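User: Can you help me understand a structure? I only have the sequence.
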Amino acid sequence: MSMQQGGSGGNKHYADTTEDSNKEPELYSAPAAVPAGDVLGYMSDMLLELKDISDQLGLRTLSGLLALSHTEAVVRQEQQLQQQKGASS
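Assistant: Let's start by predicting it. Here is the structure, written out as tokens:
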């Protein structure tokens, strides 16, 4: 499991170090060239796919959490689009 580092920035993550805890964790971050709205759109699609799988397996709690997460991603994507429209006007 990866550990998220940093304050509210949230885009710096550290790779799993459970196998060899003596090594420094490997830093990686999300590509800056991909607009946040596009990432959120992709995430919302994936969350919906995972929700459908959970529904098929009868995993109601997981399905509900994924539905909530999907809604959050859609709302955040709409906010990003509104911010982009405001910045370009």
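Now, to help you interpret it: The two ends are 42 Å apart (CA to CA). Residues 1-15 have pLDDT under 50 and may be disordered. Let me know which part you'd like to focus on.
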